[in-house]
Amino acid sequence: MERALVTPPPVRSIGMDRTPKGERSAAVLMLLTDAPDPSLTFVTRAETLRRHAGQIALPGGRVDPGDVDRADTALREANEEIGLDRGQVRLLGELPALWVPASRYDVTTVIATWDGGQHLHAVDPAETGAVHDYRISQLASAEVRVTGKHPSGFSGPAFILGEQFIWGLTAHLVDWVLELAGWDRPWDVGREVAIPERYMRD
User: Fold this and answer.
1) pLDDT-based confidence at 4, cuts 50/70/90?
2) How do the domains of the chain map onto residue ranges?
3) Can you tell me the distance from the alpha carbon of 21 to that of 148, in angstroms, rounded to the nearest whole number?
């Protein structure tokens, strides 16, 4: 993964122009364990949040004025959401920011590794409902990969992991990293699944 980030990849097309608009900025943390088959950390957003309640996401949030850079934002948010000690983290690099039309944020993905030794938990139940981790081998498996279909006509990569459904920007970011790191495996893009209603709240 680190080698893939030596030269930052170009902005990825996700069905529309995702070039940053400069309106407001956010950062998310793609946290991988330092292992042959890494685990990737996700959160379930709290059901009480105004936007994207109950959805599976990467830890992260908006850039605050005091943040030094996007990595600082992602690490601060991860500490606030899941109690991650930034001293345990080794930064690998960043993906180019992508514009998210639903929130009008330019979102930068910060990629990092850690030893996985710290217990991560939902620090504030009003913000984070749960913490999950999935092995890269599981995320890359054709058994969990589908194309998610939204009633609006939107479609994109998605992952079905037990009762959890990962779609939208988070699924695109996971798909992108699987590809960049050479972890991706063939899967049936034509296997379409309607996005469960409980994961579609704006």
Assistant:
1) low
2) 3-197
3) 26
Distances (CA, A) of 151 to 13, 144, 169, 193, 195: 21, 21, 17, 11, 8
d(CA 20, CA 1): 24
Confidence of residue 124 (pLDDT cuts 50, 70, 90): confident
The yes or no reply on domain 3-197 and CATH 3.30.450.20 is no
* Length of the chain (residues): 202
The secondary structure of residue 68, as a DSSP letter, is: S
In sequence order, what E strands does 46-104 have? 56-57, 60-62, 90-100
β-pair type (192-194, 164-166) = unpaired
- Among residues of the chain, what percentage have pLDDT more than 90? 68
In the predicted model, is pLDDT for residue 126 greater than 90?
Answer: no
Q: How many CA atoms lie within 13 A of 170 on its CB side?
A: 26
Question: Which letter does DSSP use for residue 177 in this model?
Answer: H
The tokens for 128 are 């984070």
- Between the alpha carbon of residue 167 and those of residues 70, 116, 183, 199, the distances in Å are 23, 25, 19, 9
3-state secondary structure of 71: helix
Region of 79 please: left (phi>0), alpha (psi -120 to 50) or beta. Answer: alpha
Q: What is the pTM of this model?
A: 0.91
Cα 102 to Cα 109: distance, rounded to the nearest angstrom: 17
Q: What is the dihedral of CA 68, 71, 76, 82, to 10 degrees?
A: 180
Question: Rounded to 5 degrees, what are φ and ψ at 130?
Answer: -165, 165
